[in-house]
Amino acid sequence: RFIIQAIGRGVGVEEELSALKGIPDLDEDDESFRTRKEKIEEEYQKTALLTEYGKELAAARQMQMGLMPTKGPRIDGLNVAGSCRPATDVGGDFFQYLQMDDSRWVICLADVTGHGMEAAIPVVMFSGIVESQIEIEGTLEELFCRLNRILHKTLDERTYVCFAMAELDITSGFLRVGNSGCPYPYHYSAR
User: Can you give the three-state secondary structure of 85-105, one letter per residue?
Assistant: First the structure.
């Protein structure tokens, strides 16, 4: 009765707890009053934990989405676009466009095993590793070998990263693709 009246007035759990402190309900014995009060306190704690967890997930989502571009690069003669929509608040998906020099671009796609935070944390780490390793000159094969060595040392044995990377040379029109566990790219020509 007391809770329904409080909800009817738009009072939240915290206000309800304040109202219950020190006010005996004449229709109930002390034991049922304590039981009801304990249940309300337990619900309040659950609500507070869920609220905090929601804030942490929102911050993690913002961090993960901040790693990925919001629009495609401007490359003469090409339209490039991408987007990421995790199945949950955060996930193990990642993509990036990196300009190497005036005529070369790199497009990266990755998917870390798992879902939620267990995949989001490794993908954040992986994005930094990829950017640092791309700065080192070398072939795609050398880059993939370096990435594999680093990830083998860093990740646990249950976590894998599927990774594909395309290096586009605008001057020559040549596209080289390296693939490690992703579906093969599909090339479509309007001709």
Answer: CCCCCCCCEEEEEEECCCCEE
